[in-house]
From TrEMBL:
<feature type="domain" description="HTH luxR-type">
    <location>
        <begin position="194"/>
        <end position="259"/>
    </location>
</feature>
<dbReference type="InterPro" id="IPR017470">
    <property type="entry name" value="Tscrpt_reg_EpsA"/>
</dbReference>
<dbReference type="Pfam" id="PF00196">
    <property type="entry name" value="GerE"/>
</dbReference>
<keyword id="KW-0238">DNA-binding</keyword>
<dbReference type="InterPro" id="IPR036388">
    <property type="entry name" value="WH-like_DNA-bd_sf"/>
</dbReference>
<keyword id="KW-0805">Transcription regulation</keyword>
<protein>
    <submittedName>
        <fullName>Transcriptional regulator EpsA</fullName>
    </submittedName>
</protein>
<dbReference type="InterPro" id="IPR016032">
    <property type="entry name" value="Sig_transdc_resp-reg_C-effctor"/>
</dbReference>
<keyword id="KW-0804">Transcription</keyword>
<dbReference type="InterPro" id="IPR000792">
    <property type="entry name" value="Tscrpt_reg_LuxR_C"/>
</dbReference>
<dbReference type="GO" id="GO:0006355">
    <property type="term" value="P:regulation of DNA-templated transcription"/>
</dbReference>
<dbReference type="GO" id="GO:0003677">
    <property type="term" value="F:DNA binding"/>
</dbReference>
Length: 264
């Protein structure tokens, strides 16, 4: 907790305000504004990459928060980022799950994966240091990893201490932001797949149930999946039969219970 002890009375007030502002985060734009505010005094960075999921089985999703042009979540895939993020997660585990810093020379972070030769890949070449920390999910399978990239020089022990104190609030802020549709599909598809073996749901039926669990109607699901409402209705009837239920509420409850049992 060296970070807190080092703060002046003025900084303590600013830090208290920063924490209180977490509850106002609702959208990705709110999260960006919060991360570009006073938090930059303590953790200066241009890019934040957050990853979560089942790292041990290589099934993860991600979010990118940055004010840099074009550096967005929608412009990069989790599959392309996975090798980098899995490597950083493994090292975090090996080091005892404490914050650690990485520094590079003037060439920046160069990603060899061809799928990352985009705005993110270009931006990382301008970064000179990164700081990595995570949060273990002791009750489930969704550990979280956070990586900040900065154009400043090597981050010192003070930055690592700061990251350790602030990460729970960064994590809370991210969790208040609704998933992007692509993230809902990829993250929850993993959970649903774990119940498929018992209920025998097809890949399309599992995908439909993801959106049913989000409260979507048949017409909305049809629009999302680019299929007809009639096709969705037919799939739902087969799902009801496989789950031995009579309506959507029962189907969601039964599937949620099975996923909970699988994850425990």
């Amino acid at each position: 907790m060296n970070f807190l002890y080092s703060l002046s009375s003025e900084d303590l007030g600013r830090y208290s305000k920063l924490i209180q502002e977490v509850i106002r985060v609702r959208r990705h734009f709110d999260l960006l504004q919060w991360l570009q505010g006073d938090i930059q005094r303590y953790l200066p960075h241009e890019i934040l990459v957050a990853a979560w999921g089942d790292f041990h089985n290589g099934v993860i999703d991600h979010d990118i928060v940055s004010a840099l042009p074009g550096v967005r979540t929608t412009h990069s895939s989790s599959e392309a980022l996975a090798p980098l993020l899995l490597g950083l997660f493994d090292r975090w585990n090996q080091l005892g799950k404490v914050p650690y810093a990485l520094g590079v020379n003037e060439t920046g972070f160069i990603l060899e994966n061809a799928d990352l030769q985009c705005e993110l890949g270009s931006a990382l070449q301008g970064m000179r240091s990164s700081l990595v920390h995570g949060i273990s999910d002791e009750r489930g399978r969704h550990d979280c990893l956070y990586v900040i990239f900065s154009s400043n020089g090597e981050l010192d022990n003070s930055a690592r201490s700061t990251m350790e104190v602030l990460l729970p609030y960064i994590d809370t802020a991210l969790r208040r932001v609704e998933h992007l549709p692509r993230q809902i599909r990829s993250t929850q598809q993993t959970q649903v797949n774990q119940a498929d073996e018992e209920f025998g749901l097809s890949s399309r039926e599992a995908e439909i149930m993801i959106w049913v669990r989000q409260g979507k109607t048949n017409p909305e699901i049809a629009s999302i999946l680019d299929i007809s409402t009639f096709t969705v209705k037919n799939h739902m009837q087969r799902i009801f039969k496989k789950l031995d239920v009579f309506n959507r509420t029962q189907a969601v409850a039964k599937l949620e219970n099975k996923i909970l049992n699988v994850g425990s």
